[in-house]
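ok here's the first one, seq then struct tokens
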Amino acid sequence: MPTKLKQAHSNWVEGEYFWGREHELELAARKIKEGAHMLITAQRRMGKTSLMRELARKLSNEGEFYCFYIDLEGSSSAADAIAKLSASTRAHQPVWGKVKGAFANALSFFKDQLESLSIADVEIALRAGITNNDWQDKGDKLFEILANTDKKTLILLDEVPVMISRMLRGIDGTITPESRAQTDTFLTWLRANCQKHVRRVHLILTGSIGLEPVLRQGQLSATINHLEAFGLEPWDTATASSCLQALGRQYGIDFAPGTLDSIVDHLGSCIPHHVQLFFARLEDRCMRSKSTQVTLADVEHAYKEGMLGNAGHAELSHYEERLRLALTKDDYTLALDMLTEAAVTRSLSPAALEYFRRDEAARNPSPENQRQVLERQRNLIWILEHDGYLKRKGEGYVFISKLLRDWWKARHGGFYTQVSKRSGQ
């Protein structure tokens, strides 16, 4: 690894900015070359997009693959996804030439100015030529093209769970037989094309919310059984410390004894983005005080005022927003209570879980509802574990990240009454 590192400023990274994931990069590259299709799983801000981008750069430079990265966050249909993938091929002229031919009718109006259009405009033109009735045919032709080029193809789809959630739950958040069938058709079609073009077209999926929890809501988990899970863990202490030191060397800042350990202890879990964010707050404090050394007092101030303050809110509020995307309105409300209880009391205890079940069941005391409440709570716990909010500790559950716990308490704890202090407890 290099001895110096520039700040990422909340962006995805590649090349000289890529840090601390060399083993994961090599492992992912090997698996793709061996024919795997992968689902990258990790909690938020762990570096999933950066790994995908750096992997695409690596494999493209090696010359064996055409790599196409597509962000599906703004998409809500299969046709949208196919238009985005088709437009992305313009980065590789040998592939783009064939795609243009397949979509000649849709692109005919722009024939004389096509190459001067932005990718976004090309995507709009392609999308206009794809309907809900013919997207499978158009998609099949696209996969045939990608499978029969002079190189293998790697498709990297980001924010897939956001798109699938929109397809499955619609505008009003309700899963209908029609929306479930449409989502099932798209995912089954995608799996079929991966299997048809095995070792020619490779697929990687990921997103800022978990795909499996979204699919479980529609009982569609089997549609991704062709994907191999590829997990990203938080950095260990040594990697986080080396990152901080490399950032310090880049910006002329050193760390007093004990400060690196203090930073890691405050974070609790060394999520790469949070490590970089902490350094940014420390650098800002050093610049304001005209100091070149970080002290223990600086760490404490940067954590309380920077990480947990207004500036930190802008960086951490997506944990709340993304949870809203993954859950129904009622489940989201219950999840907020459960997480706030865990933040305020430092543990979501069995007694608190029982209280929440009783509170929910009291609204409808039928035996069937009692069973549904228990299953609903179990599912919520599974989602909060899967997406990196909570982990099991003893008989209860605690936040994985101390930073997220402290931020959540500051955000929601002010008007919250913990379960043990409520009447009847």
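and now the second one, same deal
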Amino acid sequence: MMLARIRESGRLLRRVDPASHWALKRFFIKLAAVAVFAGAMIQRPAAESILTLAYVNVLASMVIALLHRERCNAGPLNHWDEAAAFTALCALAHAAKFTLG
């Protein structure tokens, strides 16, 4: 039963168009880089490091989207969606920062 669900989720990922698939890979690579730099490289609290790096990624994604003249509500995932995901990460990091002190 569980194996069938895993196979079905793999099929759903294959149904994603190639442009969206590349956008998802790009987002996860950037997310991994943020985690590595925030956790190991920067000598600040982790929440502040994540916020700083996520803000940089939001701005970079928005600039790239403007330079590529991508539409905000286009069909495949693009840099605008990546900026929105990093904005959500910023909101989550802010919530964690204020909750934890």
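notes on #2: Residues 17-100 form one domain. The two ends are 43 Å apart (CA to CA).
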